[in-house]
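User: quick one, fold this
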Amino acid sequence: MKNDFCEIRPAFLTSRHSPFARELRAAAEAYLKDHEDHRYGNAATAFKVVTLAILTCALFAASLNSTGEISFMCLYIAFLASAVLLSANVSHDASHGALFRSRLLNAIAMRAVTVPLGVEPVYWQVRHVRYHHPNANIEHHDLDTAANRFLRQTPFQPWFPQFRFQQYYWPVVAGLSMPYIAWIYDWSDRLGLTPLARDRLLPGPAGWLCFVGSKLAHLGLCLVVPLAVVGHGTGYGPVIAAYALGQMVASCLLLTLILGTHWADTEFYDVSDGAPLPHTREEHAFLTCCDWVPRPRLLNGLLGGLNHHLTHHLFPYYNHRHYPALASIVEQLALRHGLPYRCLHYRELLRAQRRFLESMGKRPNSSDV
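Assistant:
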């Protein structure tokens, strides 16, 4: 795996002299004070998480007790889809220390809910918090948009002929992304083949035990147990097929909720020449992501704040239960300061995502690369 990570850290304009940044922080603090609230999860958050956890466990148990191949596969896939929603409502907040006040409880919660998905939470957290958030859409710094042979995600990346069709095959890439993270990225991180090697995560024998133990727990829960309980009745083939298809469905569900937020009419930057960026970190969020509105709005409570992605980038240490109120604050202040706040309907997001993939898939002129 080629490592083209750049050592030069992107230089933003300082937020200390930004009227928008000052007003944004003051408005958020006033919001919490007026509501006599805190930035973490509350009883309603706990109720939602426990309900999703019960639903996930119930679907898994129902799949193990099913008698037909079709019913087993449907219930098993529904179990993994529920596990994705559970993880979205837990891991995103916990990775930023916004679920519980306790760092230990946040770490335990992340590890527990990611077992069905097979992803190592420590590596995902560092990729997300230390590399993606400060460097969104910045070439060689944002690991989420690193160059690869599957999707061309920035105008600075090499072009290959298959990219002409990426607007058609991207759902397949989305479906394979989470398994790829679990079995390629995680092991590459573990073996020190990625920029995360400098972070020295999960060190020593204890780190290996935690890492391998989590992978075995995933395989044991999601594959070995169904094979042992259901396999003798339905056959091993349907169980293995349900595992593979379920992981792809879960991955596609998660990726379709977040990919377009950094693709929809956004900007991309290359600072490998050391030139500073002409804006603050707060302004960078407006230029590189957006919010979107689910339909029906009832779904808003199930997505863990993934649809308020711009708001999340401005307030990563606030629990997602605050995002609707914070998004309103962001919209008002952005209008006052002339910043491009965007909140799209999901269909608009998908159309913008398709336009982006088409534009990145066109062969660039030699002078453009």
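User: anything notable?
Assistant: The chain has a mean pLDDT of 94.
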